[in-house]
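Exercise 3.2. Students should predict the tertiary structure of the chain below and write it as structure tokens, then compare their answer with the key that follows.

Predict this chain's 3D structure.
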Amino acid sequence: MSPVWPVCPRPQPEESLLSWFERIGREYDLSAAKLLASVGRGRAPVPKSNARSQLQHLHEQRFREELAVMARLPEPHEGALTQRLNGWELETFASRVYCPHCLLQDLKLNRPAYGRQVWQQAWYTLCAPHGTALRVRHGCPSILHRDWSRTQLVEDADLVAANQYRTLKVAREPELRCALLGCLLEIERAVGAAISGVAPNPLLWGRLSAEDFLLVLRDVTTWSLTHFEPVRAWCAAEDLTIVEEQEGYGMVGRIRRLTPSDYPEKRTVRALQDVVNPKVRGAALWVAHAMMSVIHPDASDRPTGVSPQERQATRLRRCVPEGRRWLADRQRHWPRTYLRSSWICVAVHEPSAKMSPSVHRQE
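Answer key:
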């Protein structure tokens, strides 16, 4: 058993375990990686190169129990250690994603600035309370992260405001929604609810269970983020129109071209969890909304009246054959009734063909 820490900050409401762990490390001038190594000595070491293993180790029941004893947590605070992995966490062992407005609010209320649990979710790219995109705090778990600087946060907040989406006009009627911000908030709310077991609104997403909605979303976003031909083609999340880039105020679009080095080791595809940059993840979610949602306004803030199948055909027509093959293969795991009613046949040579029952016979 590791010794009890003489000084340990209390976890804040909805604080991520990673953020709290990092704040503990600052008290002893230890990086998150070194602090993790100091807890539970005698166990098998966690591979430094495997961020996912480190993340899972931090959430193990025995590890959390030992952490509670070392931190001398009173019972009301033990809820901070009950966080469970849901499979949508970012593949990073650091509190790298944040909203400067939320952190400035923390400082204004005379409490420590801390990372929220939801910021570690790969599907969460916007701060819903402030309507702005999250930012990335560059760093490494092996390096000690100093506390948040008010001056830097003010500069970040000003930068976010300069690049902010159009004024949020969330309303019940789709024609009043801001195109980019409204769609991203809509799909992110649906994902958060589905992770909690709530099925998406069938009038917006078709008839899908919560589990199937997440399956389809995972496949579509992975497809849109993957460079199936790294030299000759952009991935779909990078290949947004000029209007979409302009209306996104730099939040989405061709930020930079993805290269093979951006892919996780021994993987040929990129999922949302592999991408730290909220701008790139937001672009993938925008593409997913265009291909999955029953109603999707274009980037000029006007309803298009275009069916999901027409939008799918437009996106897939620009995709390389290997990309269409990959998505067609993944569709074999989707619900048949949903495929027939909501999707086209993602064929290699006929991307605009209507979905027919015969496509399911390959199962």
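Discussion points: Confidence is low (pLDDT under 50) at residues 164-177, 351-363. The first strand starts at residue 97 and ends at 98.
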